[in-house]
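Quick start: what a row looks like.
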Amino acid sequence: MELCRKRTSIDERMIKLQNEGKCTNKDKAFIAAKLIEMQFEEEDALLASRQCNTVYHAVKFLTQLCDLCNCRFPINLMSSMVYCTHRACKECFRAHFTSLIYDRSIFTLLCPICHKPDITDQNIQEYFNHLEMMFRNMLAGHVYDLFQRKLRDEVLTKDPNFHWCSQCSSGFIASPRLRKLYCPDCSAITCASCHQTWELEHEGVHCERFQQWKDMHTPEPPPAGLVKYLADRGVTCPSCELVYPQACGGSLLYKCSHCSFEFCGFCTRPYYRGKDCGNKSCESRGMHAHHPYNCLFFLRDVEMSDIQMILEEESVSYLTIPPKDQIVKSRCQIREQKHVHGCLSEERCGRDIVPYCAGLCRTHYYEYLAELLKKNKINYLSIMTTQDLQFLLRKSRVLIPDKVKGETNDEYYKRLTKIVSSTLT
């Protein structure tokens, strides 16, 4: 009797799906109806019925296991690595590679499971060509642009005639015979030997003598406006408590020049390699930190307008134009830790400033807004969607719970919010 009722239910659903034009024939309608009876979402069931010819293959299509979060997804939501057999859902891949592109060298963009391939001069171009195609539709536009810029810079820096500008983030090729290097972007002139901005006093004078003169006669002007605001916040090493009057910059991974401790420049949580943090699930993560949800690590993925909206709702004022005491230039003047000529150095940011970002580049304006949220203890989770909350958990390698039978969308959202609040603190 029960079997007859089930068959009747499937037949009725098949007819309904065909009448609504969702299935082109009886066989496809049967696969979709059977999957819906098995508690798959209708949208996924219809997708699988279009791609597969049997219920068995349709179920397999819809239950691909992600090697990172151990959840199951339809095959169209999965991605495969280039040089190995490991696979992960697109959200896990996006979270993994976004974090690496922000904070690490492009040579760390390896499989998060087996850390392959071993990048050599022979396969480097082919490998990054594959990554470029994979990232194009996977990553947010500004993250993809950052990847392209890092890739370009890595190729250029292998040329012995390539030089970085001393005033902006641009680089260029110059003749090895030149002592004065002219930046084609900002027109600044840099010394080819000491990499200082060229001044008249450098003419006919060795770099060491010029540096002595510069130290005596050109003290650094005091910072003002938001440049001063972010410098005053500074970065404090949680190990030796040395304070750096700098901003975090594009990379949150900060290395103390005094004690070599590696930590997040915003939330100061330590960075670990793999499972050194004590969590077995982090074995495949490489260099990582366990950031709280209000860290810039997560906030930089939130729309800027959404952050501004919640600040307004909490009656917290923020700047969109530079304060009067801030000297505005075409490039961001925030000081940050950078890798320059193979060494860590404190340098000006040098990125282009963005309209309505108070005279800062996009990266440092995000840091300014994130600092306002942190300073005023504002919980921004209310602006997150269910998908956003799932992304936060996936980015932190926290198991995402399934929506239980009978649970409303609102109840599931509240449960995810509670998990984020309790685990990412």
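That is the whole record. The chain has a mean pLDDT of 82. DSSP finds 14 helices and 16 strands in the chain.
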